[in-house]
Amino acid sequence: MVRRIACILIFLMTAFNLFAQELNCNFVVNAQQTGNENVQVFKTLEKQLSEFVNNTRWTNKSFEVLERIDCSMVVNILDYSSDAFQASIQVQSARPVYNSSYSSSVYNFNDKDFNFNYLEYQNLNFNTQQFESNLISVIAFHVYMILAMDADTFALNGGQKYYEQARDIANYSQRGNSMGWEPPSGGDQTRRVLIDNVLSNSYSEFRKVLYDYHRLGLDLMAANPKEAKTAISNAIVNFKNLHKRRPNSFLVRTFFDAKADEITDIFSSGPKVKISDLVSTLNKVAPIHSKKWQKIKF
After folding, report:
1. In sequence order, what DSSP letters do the residues of 44-64 get, joined into one string?
2. Are 275 and 296 in contact (CB under 8 A)?
């Protein structure tokens, strides 16, 4: 009997490992700006959203526990009245680098258009085909962007189906008339702009850079740092052609929001490689980080 119970427990633990959810998300609701941060509804919202993100099955792919994607979502509540909340959400994700303890930032997006309605303890259900609420749509959109960009770093265009799901969410959520889903007009930095750009052929270099930078660059760093640095440099230089077609694009800015510090660290130490073209490209496509580029050693 004891052996049988032990076998059952082992089976259940193994099954859990095989079918663990995709994300390991640290979820925070920050209500400091409201002046009422200790109100119970904020704690309940944080707990429910954390369970929603971490316990929902977002794909049909089997993830082991150690394969779950590390990420964070910080909801900053700016104001609220009854069940109406005005907020923003900062979303970040990282992926491990092969043969190291280092994790590299992949997705870094500050979504300022996050107004939603929420009643304490309401059911949070995601439907792949239809709009449920702006709260659910925004969270689900960013989940699929995390999944897509992570997959793109491991296989060229590997995140396609997840980007398409994010686009579907954007399409049906537009009917809810909430900000951030509407078709872009010049200068917008919204969810709609982000997903439209990622899936546009005009920005095709972006996804190739994601793959080359991580899989052909960072993942080789432990074995051959000089070769890895050269690959990373070559990957970034690919942004030159994109910049010619779409100067100062929002999509490229999202890449460097995640990568600027890392790039500076990579090329400020270790074996020297030829990087004159890299520095020139960085100053053209990401001039906002010019002070960081000055730290790069030739």
Report:
1. HHHHHHHHHHHHS--SSS-B-
2. yes
Residue 205: strand pairing partners? none
Please compute, for residue 150, the number of CA atoms within 13 A of its CA located in the half-sphere on the CB side. Answer: 21
- Residue 240 in tokens: 């030159």
Please state, in angstroms and rounded to a whole number, the distance separating the CA atoms of residues 80 and 95.
35
Q: In what order do the strands lie in the sheet with 69-81?
A: 23-30, 69-81, 84-96, 103-117
- Indicate whether 146 pLDDT > 90: yes
Segment 204-208 long-range contacts (CB within 8 Å, at least 24 positions apart) = 205/238, 205/239, 205/241, 205/242, 206/242, 206/251, 206/252, 206/255, 207/152, 207/156, 207/157, 207/159, 208/156, 208/235, 208/238
- pTM greater than 0.85 (yes/no): yes
Q: Can you read off the two tokens belonging to residue 151?
A: 């997959």
Rounded to the nearest 5°, which phi and psi values hold at 109?
Answer: -135, 125
In the chain, the amino acid numbered 291 is K
Predicted confidence at residue 298, as pLDDT, reads 63
Amino acid occupying residue 182: E
Taking alpha carbons only, the member of 13, 53, 237, 243 closest to residue 138 is 53
CA pair distance 49, 120, nearest whole angstrom:
11
- Is beta strand 103-117 parallel, antiparallel or unpaired with respect to 69-81? unpaired
CA contacts within 13 A on the Cβ side of 206: 28
- Is residue 13 within 8 A of residue 54, CB to CB? The reply is no
Poorest-pLDDT segment among 15-29, 91-105, 163-177, 194-208: 15-29
| Residue 70, number of CB atoms within 10 A of its CB | 17
pLDDT(230) > 80: yes
